Amino acid sequence: MRTTVPEKLLKIADDISETGSANLTRLTVLKKWFETPGRLGPFAIWVADRATSRRGKTKGEAGKLFRDARALLTDLDRVEPTINAEAAELLHAKLVAYQDDYRTDRWGRIRIVNNWQRLLI
Question: What pTM does this model have?
């Protein structure tokens, strides 16, 4: 019997594409889906791939980070992707260093996000 989870995931992705967010209670579907080993990695790579493929001009250091991420994600197997761990860790360190601004609120530190696509990578 076929599960409705793939359809629910597609609906969540469509909602995020259209409105920029999804209903939090619907995201519990993701928890069940990712309990199966081997699903989280390909999904994370899919999200990063979509974030780096957005149209628009990004210049300077931010543009270089997008190009580096794009190069890392190019020509990967979509079912069982394997990424060079050292290159991924280096890119992650660069991304964190680039977007590492916080402000203090009465509840604690809050990250200031200047570019949501870069945060998704």
Answer: 0.65
